[in-house]
Amino acid sequence: MAIERIPRIRRAAIGANVAALCIVALAIYLMVNYLSARHYKRFDWTANKYYSLSDKTANVLKDLQFPIKVYVFSQPFSPVYRDVKELLNRYSALSKNIEVEYVDPEKDPARVRFLLNKFKISPPGQGNLVVFEQGERNKYVYDRDIVEMDYSGMRFRQAPTIKAFKGEQAFTSAILNLTQQKQPVVYMVTGHGERGSDDAQQAGLQLSRTLLERENLKVEKVALYEKKEVPRHCDLLMIVGPREPYMDEEKKALSAYLTNGGRLFVALDPQTKSGLEAFLKEWGVEVGNNIVVDPESAQRLLFFSALNLFADNYGSHEITNDMKGRATLYAEVRSVKPLTSNPDLRAVALVQTSPLGWGETNMLDETFRFDEGQDMKGPVPFGVAVETNAGKAGDKPLKNMRLVVLGDSDFINNAQIANLSNASFFLNIVNWLTSREKLIAIGPKMPEQTRVRLNAAQMSNIFWFSVVVLPGLGLALGIVVWWRRRK
Predict the structure, then answer these.
(1) Which structural domains are found in the chain, ordered by start?
(2) Closest to 238 (Cα-Cα) out of 423, 415, 406, 416
(3) Which pLDDT belongs to residue 282?
(4) Can you state the angle between helices 206-214 and 167-179, rounded to 10 degrees?
(5) SS3 state at 393
(6) pLDDT (tens digit, 9 = 90+) per residue, 163-172?
């Protein structure tokens, strides 16, 4: 009897050990999954970092102190649903203050009606709507703000495709609108033929104004010849494309504004007389009476004239630090050179031509050529940023003045703002002028479309290999196995 009990006891011990190991393995599995759910690292292996957040968004989310609830009114089969969900997952992974709720208008119409009544908005219809809520404040983002659609294939009965995804720009701007206590005010000067912020024509600035408003900036107009001074609550003053000279009283108002730590953006086109050239020279900027030409740029712009500049040669500055590998496009540019004669000011060239470029002074000649001693030798700068150096002027401390001058105003009009990285460069300028250096511009994400092009011979080889060779090998192996078993 004792001999028979030993195997039973041993089997029971082995079973108990196996059960204990299973329990330990299950506990380890649950613990690893719990820890990985709370502490995990996301990796983006796409070539264009399609699934990575920009530094701007990361800075905004890390500094987020208030809880924000995000409501997504969309259906799973929507073209933008997957991208929106993936993007918001990245937002909530980076900040615990982001909470997301997905509301399907078809599955839960009662919840939709309640939320729409709560936010006092009309039904989104067939489109998609994302609502950001913080306390009693809310911000709406529609699908037209999230994606750019390509409808070119519809003539071939193809469905529209997503050309560019702008969700990060729209969502981060919405969060900024809700979290920033003070909304900076931007004034655009009028009365001298400047480009209009409400003008929807190609030469207008309506799209640029929309970009500023999405950056939580309030845009107003001001006529200096009426006010005689810059409004006290002005955070940024913009002079874009004046066609008529400024009066002495207006220039005195501008000088007083900068002296008191004002922020000014000036864009002057060639062959115009704004009367601001001498004024800007006092503040460390020399605006040339010329047209900038760059043969290297002309070679890269096959369908544009020589007066258009393709620029990717930037200086070292907070505005341009993230512009490496990105280009901007300009039309008819004049030179803008930094001056170093005033020790109280720090002037830096933002963008310039290649070494082959020059500043053409003979603007009546249709064929441009460099004339030694008359034309400005390249590389020719046409954008300058100026700020006050730390220190004192006499017994008074210097106030932090900032100024940006560009030799072209066309690059931000309705026809040009969407070209290349013009919008990003413009927003970088505005964010620096308003002391929001962390808020660098966010560009749209282009979906990766990897295509494999095969010729007829390659297609034929793939066909024979997949249809004949592989099935034939499987059949041959089956016959071999059957023959060996038969023996």
Answers:
(1) 55-176 (3.40.30.10), 185-433 (3.40.50)
(2) 406
(3) 93
(4) 60
(5) strand
(6) 777 788 888 8
